[in-house]
TrEMBL record:
Gene3D superfamilies: Aldolase class I (3.20.20.70). Pyruvate binds at T50, V207. This is 4-hydroxy-tetrahydrodipicolinate synthase. The active site is at Y138, K166. The lineage of its organism: Bacteria, Pseudomonadati, Pseudomonadota, Alphaproteobacteria, Rhodobacterales. One of its GO terms (molecular function) is 4-hydroxy-tetrahydrodipicolinate synthase activity. It comes from Roseovarius lutimaris. CDD domains: DHDPS-like. Keywords: Lyase, Schiff base. GO terms for cellular component: cytosol. Belongs to the DapA family.
Length: 305
């Protein structure tokens, strides 16, 4: 079955910049969008966990998606996140995505409910029916408590809209399963430290939070592995990126680290909404050092070509 939409390249789950009083900083969001598009990312995702969707009302999520759509102006695809605890909230977000003109939706399992594969599939199909847009599934059992298993994948396969999955389980066997048994669902990397392995198994896209502030370096790995098929070069780039991935994942400070990285580019990413707090001085220093070395190393590898 030919997918109705091709997800290819680097998709950035965009941050939400805030003022200190918690209001969205729309000027900084515009700057981030322009920076990402100018850097060559292939798509932008709003309303994901990297954008702090868990700390936003439905109205805020819709407003931010609409604002992003109006600023992107069709230059790259816009994917709108529909993840929510309540099915009716996800449906409302899906309908809003359709109405504002989004290219696709991101669809995760509802957290905490821990539905069976059948229940989860029926939930997903209801959201799909509301949007009638291409769907990028999001399998992240560590956050949702639910694995999108074979029965789920078989059931949602009844709709052609389900054409991709961001796989974030961390289980390499899932990569094998998706590549071998579900080739009609485009497999995307959602586990940054396994990006090389995903590309080796044919993944055509990567959803990576770090591309908010290091888009060109993430593009470089995709270019080497997927476009050029040069995995020797890809391994060198991946090796240079692994220290960053360690910093991002340690101690539950992923979003704080991403936002400080954006601030390092000169864009005011601002504070996090509660309950999260910003990085301390040591964490900032560690990220700045890792980023400096990473950029220099990857620039050198690219220059060799």
């Amino acid at each position: 079955m030919t997918p109705i939409f091709r997800f290819e390249g680097i998709y950035t789950p965009i941050i939400t910049p805030y003022f200190e009083d918690g209001r969205p900083n729309l000027e900084a969001l515009t700057e981030t969008i322009e920076f990402l598009i100018a850097s060559g990312v292939n798509g932008i995702i709003t309303g994901g966990s990297t954008g702090e969707n868990y700390a936003q009302t439905l109205a805020e999520r819709v407003d931010l998606a609409r604002f992003s759509y109006e600023r992107i102006k069709g230059r790259v695809p816009l994917v709108v996140g529909t993840g929510a605890m309540l099915t009716q909230d996800s449906i409302a977000l899906a309908e809003a995505a359709r109405d504002l003109g989004a290219d696709a939706i991101l669809l995760a399992s509802p957290p905490y409910a821990v539905p069976t594969d059948r229940e989860n599939a029926l939930n997903a199909l209801a959201i799909d029916k509301a949007a009638d847009l291409p769907v990028m599934l999001y399998n992240y059992p560590h956050r949702t408590g639910t694995m999108m298993g074979p029965e789920f994948l078989d059931r949602v396969g009844r709709s052609r809209n389900f054409c991709a999955i961001k796989e974030s389980s961390g289980d390499i066997n899932r990569v094998h399963l998706l590549a071998r048994d579900y080739p009609h669902i485009q497999m995307g990397c959602g586990m940054d430290d396994q990006a090389l392995e995903f590309f080796a198994w044919g993944a055509p896209f990567w959803v990576c939070g770090g591309s908010n502030f290091l888009p060109q370096e993430h593009i470089a790995l995709y270019q080497a592995c997927v476009v050029e098929g040069d995995f020797a070069k890809g391994r060198r780039i991946m090796s240079a990126m692994l220290p960053l991935m360690h910093v991002l994942e340690q101690g539950g400070k992923f979003i704080q680290t991403i936002k400080h990285g954006v601030s390092m580019t000169g864009i005011d990413a601002g504070a996090m909404r509660a309950p999260l707090k910003g990085l301390n001085k040591d964490d900032k220093r560690a990220l700045e050092q890792v980023t400096r070395v990473l950029k220099s190393t990857i620039a050198g590898i690219k220059a060799e070509g």
